[in-house]
Amino acid sequence: DTGVSQNPRHKITKRGQNVTFRCDPISEHNRLYWYRQTLGQGPEFLTYFQNEAQLEKSRLLSDRFSAERPKGSFSTLEIQRTEQGDSAMYLCASSGQLRLSDEQFFGPGTRLTVL
Amino acid sequence: AQKITQTQPGMFVQEKEAVTLDCTYDTSDQSYGLFWYKQPSSGEMIFLIYQGSYDEQNATEGRYSLNFQKARKSANLVISASQLGDSAMYFCAMREVESGAGSYQLTFGKGTKLSVIP
Q1: Given Cys at both, which of A50, A93, B14, B61 links A33, Cβ 3.0 to 4.6 Å?
Q2: In chain A, which stretches have pLDDT less than 70?
Q3: What residue in A sits closest to B4 (Cα-Cα)?
Q4: Which of A8, A36, A4 is nearest to A22 (CA)?
């Protein structure tokens, strides 16, 4: 399977703990996106990487959130001192060319529950 | 103001019938793209169809077609011959060029839950 993969698929944590999610994009894609989807909403943009460079961050990405993409391959999203409001589905997507028509390929998501 | 508005939280359609899912958008850009994604209960977003703002013809992909009315800023998805497997959430999304960031991020609506009845 050469699609976008995300791990873990589910994560339950207690408030105040740190969590880290991983995304493996389609191998030839150099653009990688993170989105957050809360219940009853569409995905909301969090951050964007072109190769290893993080070029854009949404204001939704508070200072408790950090994302990396070392070597321009996989990416990690870390949430420090989790809060109940962080409970959501975290989606990763990748794309190849930066053209208006290019679709983003999404992974299955990581569902985070903060107790 | 919402950039993407999907006014139908839920829709029901009889199997083998056609259904239209509504989407209106708001942008001041001249160049933009509109996408529809399907999200089954498994969670993965599946790309269905794309329409560019300069495309003169409505996009079609198999049983999916996009009814694009630029002056009304609407981009409705039409699914013909509905199947049970079409039951899912459907999201309309927009990519802006000028006012959007260089990332070409997608802005999504809240979605419509489609249920296909046997």
Answers
A1: A93
A2: 1
A3: A42
A4: A8
